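Bumping with the actual sequence this time:
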Amino acid sequence: MSIKEVNFFKVFLSTMFVNILQGISIVMILPLVTYLLADEDVKDNADKNFIVQFSEQLVGFFGMPSTFYSFFYIMMIFFLLKIVIEFMLFYNIIGNMSRMQKLYRVRLLNAFVFSQWSYIQRQQPGAIVDILNRVNNMGSLYKSGVECISHFIQVCITSIILVFISYKVVIIIFIYMILGYFVLKLNTRLTKRVSQQMSHSYLMVSQRFSDMIGTIKTLKIMSKQENFLHFMSRLSQDAYKFEVRLRVLQQGFTSVSEIVTFSGVILLILIQYIQGFSFAEFVTIFILFLRLANSAKNLQNSVNNFYSVMPIYRLAEESMLVAQENRESFEGNVCVNFQKAIEIKNLTFGYEKNIVLKNCNMNFYKGEMSVIFGESGSGKTTLVDLLCGLYKVNQETIFIDDVPIEKINLSEWRGNIGYASQEIHLLNDTLRYNITLDKQGKVSDDEVWKVLEKVGMKEFVSNLQNGLDAEVGERGTLLSGGQRQRIALARALLLLPKVLILDEITSALDPVTERNVCNFVKKLVPEYTLIVITHRQAWLELADKVYKMQDGQCQLIDKKQLREDDMV
């Protein structure tokens, strides 16, 4: 549900009905006061006063005489009916607000998660998180839109009632209110502009704060916290200034509205002095004027609120639209079971004009462990991304069981791949959830224990007080580096993959821990086909095949002749 999908026609009809009920309740004030004070002038001229005539006919429709108590009962019945229906409408609006916020968040996440990998890499995590957090304001946008409709109808109905009492009063009041409108219009324009500036400033603050969290260790070690905090303070100060301006404009609107209302009351008293209305008519006009002024103020306030939230809506819509334009397409429909090999033939690939891989030829046979090493930037990770279908190749250069990867159902192919990298992302949750990534109970504990046994973590987890329900801490801080690596491997193995890709998983481990990880990974062969990206010597002894990458080119080498210096 987006703003475009909201059925405002239903909302319009509902608010129209509620305001008609309230209008009838207010209409009853004139005959109520008339009969209370026994205002004979109005009674005798009832045929000339539409309001009194309408009220008497309405009372007569319910089979009641035209008395003070009859008008009072009718007024209370319609007023209470209005309260009940208004509450039901409010309940419906709140439900729509919550659904809108939830669906917007899900749709934005869906658009981002299923977009192309090249697009995802260009995005700043802080910006995405900020937009997701501020999606909560989508409900406020919907609520402000509904309030605009409601207050507009109130203004219209109140004005119509006033016309039937005295059209001259309505003309004078509207001329006065139009002058007030142009004064408040300037406030609305400024509010819209400041809201956009404030939204952009807070977006920058979120992005930089996300950067700081990701580099906090480096900042502390290099004693650069003060520099970063000074920069963050300056950004926050800019955002603060825009927020203060917005609040001042909102308060200024309230103050101007009060001045307009007060001067309008004075004007109404002057009109009464000149026109000479009856007391009952003056009381009714006075109440209607206050209601009209309040409705007009609320309408303008709702418009201001609508414009203050609109930049967030547009930002979310633009982000969603761009992500959808970059949505990943699965053109292939061939399903492969991976029984033979992954073959790379004369592969050349680059980003725009930057060539990363040049005429690469490689083979990864089922049940083998292949190691790829090379300097940073030599194209190792790019090669893995291509094997997983994260980037498209321009021609038939990658084959899975002799089928070009472009013709393969990529979603199903990725389901055959287990992946673990040096960047281990553990969630601040239980061991069970970090391994299964499942909150719906689709993965049994028996399956979890089996993969824990495979990675050598079963005994450790069994000895924990809460077992699988033990918390790992934020980013897995309650576990050692080796344990985090094994949890990442367990997560990959739980998928029962046929191909297991390990990207520098031991780069941050000490030699002893690295040796242990290498030994138990080797035991996974031939059950799994392993592709290991590394620059560490420990993996060579276990590999069936070693490829060296340099300057975008790959070479199959004899690991016995490989020097340790070549791995650095």
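The tokens above came from a reply further down the thread. The longest helix spans residues 225-275.
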